[in-house]
Hints:
The structure is a homodimer.
Chain A: H1 3-14, H2 19-25, H3 30-44, E1 49-52, E2 55-59, H4 61-87, E3 93-99, H5 101-118, E4 122-128, H6 131-139, E5 145-149, E6 158-166, E7 169-173, H7 187-191, E8 194-198, H8 203-214, E9 220-225, H9 228-236, E10 241-244, E11 257-261, E12 269-276, H10 283-292, H11 298-306, H12 310-316, E13 324-325, E14 332-333
Parallel strand pairs in A: 3-4, 3-5, 6-13, 8-9, 8-10, 11-14
Antiparallel strand pairs in A: 1-2, 5-12, 6-12, 7-10, 7-11
Helix pairs in contact in A: 1-2, 1-3, 1-4, 2-3, 5-10
Chain A binds a DNA duplex through helix 3.
Amino acid sequence: MTLQQLKYLVAIADSGLNITAAAERLYTSQPGISKQLKLLEQELGVQLFTRKGKSLAAITPAGRDVIGRARRIMREAENIRSLASDLSGEQDGTLSIATTHTQARHVLPEVIKAFRERYPKINLELHQGTSEQIAELVAANRVDFAIATGSRQLFPGLVLLPCFRWDRIILVPNGHPLTGGNKKLTLSVLAGYPLVTYVFGTTGESSLKKAFAEQGLEPNVVFTARDADIIKTYVRMGMGVGIVAPMAYECQDQKDLTAISAAGLFPRVTTWLGFRRDAVLRRYMVEFVTLFAPQLTPQLTRQAAQLPTQAEVDALFDEEALPLRVGCEEGQERL
Amino acid sequence: MTLQQLKYLVAIADSGLNITAAAERLYTSQPGISKQLKLLEQELGVQLFTRKGKSLAAITPAGRDVIGRARRIMREAENIRSLASDLSGEQDGTLSIATTHTQARHVLPEVIKAFRERYPKINLELHQGTSEQIAELVAANRVDFAIATGSRQLFPGLVLLPCFRWDRIILVPNGHPLTGGNKKLTLSVLAGYPLVTYVFGTTGESSLKKAFAEQGLEPNVVFTARDADIIKTYVRMGMGVGIVAPMAYECQDQKDLTAISAAGLFPRVTTWLGFRRDAVLRRYMVEFVTLFAPQLTPQLTRQAAQLPTQAEVDALFDEEALPLRVGCEEGQERL
DNA sequence: CGCGTTTACGTCGTTCGTAACGATA
DNA sequence: TATCGTTACGAACGACGTAAACGCG
């Protein structure tokens, strides 16, 4: 049994049991893969795949178990290599992040700008998706970091670092009846207006629906979208009142949109950054975390990474002490 | 990087940084090890050891991390081999158990006898030690199973299967004032006698001390020992009243010793069997578990082994439904 | 007959052991 | 000088790629 053989095995599994495809993926010859697989099966004395004629038809139960463990080995080997290139001071590498639209569009740009200046040679990959898609990418070890809001239970086995908290804001066209602060904004007032907000379903956003339900109110949601840009467009059109993340309210929006803080109306949410507990954190990764959330110093991040359970990670942080994110201050009204 | 190189690396670390010793341990030549280590360091671009002259002086921080991950890889590779030999129906292998004296002396003999008949070719290793020593052996992956009573928090990361429960018994010479059941046995009555019992310190036994303390009593412990044989000897000598596990009261003891159940006086304790969560359970291992605790069927054991947390394992079992162990029924009095 | 796997074979690189050398205490 | 690690070298092995054969749809 060699690392090579295990790598081949995993590649075959990842190529739909097509040895030729696995060979291409690994830039090597097909007979080589075939032979090493046979040698591995011979050494182990177990069929890892069922054959139909000469082709591989399915993975045997034994094969599934072996492949799973082989994946772990490959991951750990990758970790060793990664760790080593970090310590030998190499400045190349990749930082792969999966996140939601709000972060990618309104928070990450300036973070990434600073990061690129600091580490110009690091290859950056940004994947945008729903919480579920992010969870998938993380589980498959396709990304280094996941950044999302709420829905922590979707990400078992990750180290989740709280980064900042925020309260939703209400977006209305300038001069809207809700502006001016002459009457107190409550959920029941809000329920009287048509609402435009994020797609429900992800845990973070459905907490909004729950807030209404707890007061026996049924919000009149006339439009849902995945990103704030679309929501703002429809708010401008007068379709309804927007409920968005404060980061989405930029100063240029004050020309035609007024933001009203919804602090107190809905539960405050926490944006966190997560990574696999067994992953190697290269220097540039840790530094990225600090750029994203300054209170997460490199020492703190590394300390959290070594804790065996999320409960212990949580104990490191005082939720009340987390920075509170707001959007453009101008043109924004308090409750 | 090859599995071979990682194996050599771990062997060097385990041989006190002595390459020659590592070579002997691996039945290979010393220059081979030396060269592979150099190749590995070269490929990784990191010094794994600090050199003093030509000798290895210490492990670098990078080396410690790499070695740790190498160990994981070696363990997983071992798991693959083990899994494969099990599935290919090989009847050789080793079962290594770490346990306490009580289990080794009074419970395991008949279990092991049955196991040997079923699997005569399996090599059995039994290590007796304190809870702390057992925890060490398990952590170092030196044993397959740990069997102990109480003190679960000493064994993080293990799958702990509850096997049976038991109540301590009071051992006195025949005709002792405590026999006959003419007066109700209470802790305060017991506190009036000199006591002979197990060494305190292990969590399981100190619960005994706590039971006294909760009633404001200070037990008069005149002698502590690690095993029941010694305790029985001193009880026979009239040194005091013994408090032992019921399994230690054998039928031949009734000639000169009377056992009184202490159910209700002290908390009931649970004996469990534990193994590493990521370990491969070979067929004979699972069958051993069933021999040791019949309610732990092979299916149940394998199911528990796949659960990610101990909490979920615990949820599989109803503590009240666990078998209750008693010693020799004859010559034993109820409270 | 195309697609995919296995077999055959020649080449090349790697590993391994022996032996000699070097350094350190 | 004994101990331990490195260097040198030759033999053997093993991996890889090309080419050809085989089986299946």
